[in-house]
């Protein structure tokens, strides 16, 4: 039985129409990370940060999972059905819900989720589908202390223990559509690479390219379904 951990980044959702963070038309070309994606930025101007994430959340209504998301969901489905002798865990840095909408269930959102908010008073993380503003009350404790349920720079990503265990036990580690500059995710290839095969799928060689055994370059909607087809054909 083959145990695969797939790490996904913004590149897997790019062909669904979502902007990546870096690169020519990346989100961080228009906004400063320190204004939006840090606890200090949120403390300075919560309205600005809420509006940024409200925009991204609203944008999800207009996009759909693509062939790469669907191929990974099919692999999990075949694992569950026993038609593929393997196990797949997706660890995503993405805060969109396209993996789930494609059908993936064994998934960890290490950087949080756009479709949830978090109450800094009571810790509730309710599902959230509309706009959230600084005065919006928490549905659980009713205090106006909600924030995006997103892991910002300087904060610890979610479920690191579970991710660490899966990386230590996997036979194959695959990174798809991630630039390999943001830690800890950028370090997963080194941890897995001590015992597992490693592959990256990207448009161009990522910052960590030299650490992977193999790189498949091209759009994820073309390369990932072919890889999954080959896996399923043994
Ligand atoms: N197919 C495959 N790869 C693609 C595609 C595509 N269609 N389009 C873009 N890419 C690649 C780019 O070449 C780039 O290497 O996807 C990568 C996207 O990189 P980033 O924009 O840096 O996104 P990511 O690696 O997910 O960012 C990591 O940074 O700001 C934080 O928290 C944010 O989770 C995010 C983290």
Automatic annotation (TrEMBL):
Binds 1 zinc ion per subunit. NAD(+) binds at residues 93-96, 177-179, 202-204, 220. GO terms for cellular component: cytoplasm. Its cofactor is Zn(2+). Pfam families: SIR2. It is an enzyme of class 2 (transferase). Zn(2+) binds at residues 119, 122, 138, 141. It catalyses: N(6)-acetyl-L-lysyl-[protein] + NAD(+) + H2O = 2''-O-acetyl-ADP-D-ribose + nicotinamide + L-lysyl-[protein]. It comes from the Bacteria. It is found in: Cytoplasm. The keyword Nucleotide-binding does not apply. PROSITE patterns: SIRTUIN (PS50305). One of its GO terms (molecular function) is protein-malonyllysine demalonylase activity. Residues 1-234 form the Deacetylase sirtuin-type domain. Its EC number is 2.3.1.286. Belongs to the sirtuin family. Class III subfamily. NAD-dependent protein deacetylase which modulates the activities of several proteins which are inactive in their acetylated form. This is NAD-dependent protein deacylase. It comes from Novacetimonas cocois.
């Amino acid at each position: 039985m083959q145990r695969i951990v797939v790490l996904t980044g913004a590149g897997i959702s790019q062909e669904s129409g979502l902007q990546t963070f870096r690169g020519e038309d990346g989100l961080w070309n228009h906004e400063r990370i320190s204004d939006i994606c840090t606890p200090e930025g949120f403390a300075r101007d919560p309205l600005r940060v809420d509006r940024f994430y409200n925009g991204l959340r609203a944008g999800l209504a207009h996009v759909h999972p693509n062939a790469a998301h669907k191929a990974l969901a099919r692999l999990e489905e075949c694992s569950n059905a026993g038609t593929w002798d393997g196990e797949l865990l997706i660890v995503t840095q993405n805060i969109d819900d396209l993996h789930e909408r494609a059908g993936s269930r064994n998934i960890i959102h290490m950087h949080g989720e756009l479709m949830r908010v978090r109450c800094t008073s009571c810790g509730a993380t309710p599902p959230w589908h509309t706009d959230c503003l600084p005065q919006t009350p928490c549905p659980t404790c009713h205090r106006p202390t909600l924030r995006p349920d997103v892991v910002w720079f300087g904060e610890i990503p979610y479920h690191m223990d579970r991710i660490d265990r899966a990386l230590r036990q996997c036979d194959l580690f695959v990174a798809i559509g991630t630039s390999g500059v943001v830690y800890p995710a950028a370090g997963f290839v080194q941890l897995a690479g001590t015992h597992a095969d490693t592959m990256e799928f990207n448009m161009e060689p990522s910052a960590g390219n030299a650490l992977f055994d193999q790189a498949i370059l091209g759009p994820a909607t073309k390369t990932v379904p072919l890889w999954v087809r080959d896996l399923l054909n043994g």
